[in-house]
Amino acid sequence: MDKQRDFVLRTIEERGIKFIRLWFTDVVGSLKSVAIAPAEVEGAFAEGLGFDGSAIEGFTRAYEADMLAHPDPTTFQILPWRGEIDPTARMFCDITTPDGQPANSDPRNVLKRTLAKAADRGFTFYTHPEIEFYLLKSSKFGKKGPEPVDSAGFFDNVPGGTAHDFRRRSVRMLEDLGISVEFSHHEAGPGQNEIDLRYADALTTADNIMTFRTVIKEVAIEQGVYATFMPKPLSGHPGSGMHTHLSLFEGDTNVFYEAGGTYQLSKIGRHFVAGLLRHAPEITAVTNQFVNSYKRLWGGDEAPSFVTWGHNNRSALVRVPLYKPNKAQSARVEYRAIDSAANPYLAYSLLLAAGLKGIEEGYELPPEAEDNVWELSDSERRALGYNQLPASLDHAVSLMEDSELVAETLGEQVFNYVLLNKRREWSEYRAQVTPYELESNLEIL
């Protein structure tokens, strides 16, 4: 760590960095930032930077407001969109109380705690997200709703199009920040795009997702358009998911791989998937945390609504992708419910906790779903034992409230705040009179 600190201090001096932004997230997953001058960095490393935690969503109560942000030197990167005028860098922070204890309310610390539990069992948790988002002409909209930048579809090539230039610029900027991109392409919805990040350990991935969202927003501003990670911004078009591929390693060995297993998935992998399935409904208030998230989950277009697993089944909640011959290290499972607006630190904590619970308790994997689950009738799904994910935020919060797994993983403070925040959101949503009601009812009632 001392070498990393020395590298940061030396780079700041050699590159003429004028400002260093210290980043962290609140419980909902909004990025927070405070800029310090180069002369303050050494002190921030040694003592942390004090701030009023009661002003941050979900961080602390007013009578215990003092918090410290400790920059993590391993996350130091120069921000490419700031250019050569007043060069600016950033570091993610770990939040502590004044006595040096990790803050229970820090989402990054929640993930670190869960990763430490996995490490105690010899596991390292890797994740690989496929992040979808929409490009709109503006954040303003009229009666017709948001206007996408194009009318293209899945994998379409749009020569000279906004999305094509946008993705190229975004990928180059991400690479400049040390974030490796695997794929980028136009998605199925008009103006919808997807960029897939290369797999990394879950903490690095969560940091990368927060950086990714900022990059996408900055490039959109630069190009005169608007980027949104809202789960379902357009009626009648696909929502934006963040399908995430998950794997566990012991040292250099992928423990999800077994040469003779079904789809080469090991016994540990099967227990992990069973854990994801059993606990999926109670973690959905975090992986899909907004009222709008349920418009995606229950709007069709390949979004999973039922608790099933499959191999090449795109309607399943958990998918075991095609095995690549001679690539045992690539064995993984894909969780398809999580959306692009999730707090990645909390969402990945719960996915890992659910999978580990399946391994610890030896959960048995139910039969594979081979049919398109959406095309089955309710009675057919019941006969096959396919439970559903929550149908609304209200339903999801009720299931989360009774979950020992979620309470234990998030910790009391974060758990209670998420419940409070989401109940408030549902209450405000329920009180609204929507355009749909006015259009359907006003003139005929």
TrEMBL record:
Residues 107-445 form the GS catalytic domain. SMART domains: Gln-synt_C. Its cofactor is Mg(2+). Binds 2 Mg(2+) ions per subunit. ATP binds at residues 182, 245-247, 314. GO terms for biological process: glutamine biosynthetic process. This is Type I glutamate--ammonia ligase.
